[in-house]
Amino acid sequence: MATPGSLYVTMQPKPGLPLEQFHEWYNNEHGPTRLKLPQIFTNGLRYQAKDGEEPTFLATYDVTSMSHLETETYTTLRANRSPREAETIGQVDVTRYFWDLVHTKQSPLFIPIEQLTDEEAEGLTLVAVQLRPSDVDNAEEQIIGWYKEEHMEMLSKVPGWLRSRVFKISSLEKGEPTKFIGLHDYTKDNGLGGPEYMTATQTPRTKALYSKYATRISRREYSLFYVFGAGSRDLQNLSKLPPAKSTFKSPDGQMFTTNSPSPVIESFIKTPDGLTIPYRLEGNSDPKATTVAFCNSLLTSLHMWDRFIDIFKTKRPQYRILRYDFRGRHSIPRPPQPSTLDILADDVSALLAALRIPKLDTLIGVSMGGATALKFALKYPEKLGKFIACDFNAASSPANTAAWTERISIAETPLKDGSAGIKKLAGQTVGRWFHPATMQKQDTVTWIQDMVAENDIEGFRYGCQALWDYDMKAQMKECAVPGLFVVGEGDAKGALVKAMDGFRGQLGQLGAELVIVPQTGHLPMCEDPEAFWTAVEGSL
């Protein structure tokens, strides 16, 4: 039988370790690594002491079954620390406890903290009281009975009370003396110290318990200041570090941070079907900054936006910027599963959840990314303020499906020199995408050709199927999210301009404006980023 519980860690940085360095490591490396294991950890919460005592910092993780903490999945996290983690943890006094859950009582108003927004969660109060049973018969039973039969009920009358839980030192803690801890959650503004609280803590049964059956080891009061997600997102503390301390690359190469010349986090999330999706977070380092996200086209990477982002960061410094790579760019889930627009929209939602972003200001996508932006607006309107969909079609066609089948064949057929067929496809693709004027810009041509040629071939085969059989035209009238359509003047030799003009009026009640970017083809943001900025700046 699974025993749920808590991993409870107190921390005190030693003199000489800057707090921003401590927080950046914990928020961007240590915590998210654990939250990437939802089968073990349901949440991760960071608190700071309100009582002026040390240790100053506390982290708690709710554990689905305490036996998971003895599995290789968890123990290898501690055994395979990065050099930075090993160095940092050596500058922190750490005490770690395993607690088995005994009993819970919660208010009808209680919402699991990980389901709250950061704004809603910030400042929630936690009171932690450790007890040691006296060396008399039935002391443990008396403590548990007091909690269940009286104390939790009395505390529930305190204004702002949300939940009380009692834990016993875990059976995993071999040889440790028996202890209990009560964890009590309250709203930021609460009645701690008020008449209801004083009544709850001074009953005859409480006084009798402490006189005969229990000794209070400690009572600590904390304020919640950070909720982990599975994605690293702390640009704020990263921005405060000197460049030498900010640059970090994980041993597996899947995470990178730097503050030179500006704060950037590159990391990844795991989708529910086990796929790894890389992302890049940058821009405004304020955790309350609104976020603009970008969906690239099929066959390109998140770096297709590089030149435009340079302009965007200068023109709109108030935004946090999120980019990611589509599924299929690097690999596919096992067993292989064809992509659909529904799955691609779900991936955006999963990414936002991992980064604890409740709502995007804007989602900007091109080609398959444009179709994804529209699908996301239709499926998750509560998570989006507006969208910009570029060079895409609202419905697929049999001819389009046939074309993708042919392109898969090209990518999978090795060339005579033994090189991968994806290189041939890259040349054909860029020639088809770009306006003749762009084809004269050799640096741009080479940049995108190389990007296309780096695709995982099997991933391409399954990823492109999202564009095979879809039709969003019937749904578009229901769209409650305002959108802007943008298209390169020469995309498909002008055919896509006519197509998008034909369905733009079907979006919502008012339709969508269509902006045409001159002298560009399928990727106007790559071909002429300044002209693309002119096209979209009014919406941003």
Label this structure with key terms:
540 residues, alpha+beta, Alpha-Beta Plaits, Rossmann fold, 2 domains, 8-stranded antiparallel β-barrel, 24% strand, elongated, AB hydrolase-1 domain-containing protein, AB_hydrolase_sf
Notes on the protein architecture:
The protein is an alpha+beta fold and 540 residues long. The chain has two domains: 5-227, Alpha-Beta Plaits; 271-539, Rossmann fold (3-Layer(aba) Sandwich), CATH 3.40.50. The chain is 34% helix and 24% strand. It contains 20 helices and 18 strands. The strands form two sheets. Strands 9-10-11-12-14-13-15-16-17-18 form a ten-stranded mixed sheet, with helices on both faces. An eight-stranded antiparallel β-barrel has the order 1-3-2-8-5-7-6-4. β13, α10 (306-315) and β14 form a beta-alpha-beta unit. The chain is elongated, with a radius of gyration of 27 Å. It starts with a strand and ends with a helix. The relative contact order is 0.09.
Distance between the termini: 53 Å
What is the CATH class name of the largest domain? Answer: Alpha Beta
CATH architecture level-2 label of the largest domain: 3-Layer(aba) Sandwich
**Oligomeric state of the chains present here:** single chain
Find the CATH topology of the largest domain.
Answer: Rossmann fold
Protein name: AB hydrolase-1 domain-containing protein
InterPro entries: AB_hydrolase_1 (IPR000073), AB_hydrolase_fold (IPR029058), AB_hydrolase_sf (IPR050266)
Pfam families: Abhydrolase_1
GO molecular function, one term: hydrolase activity
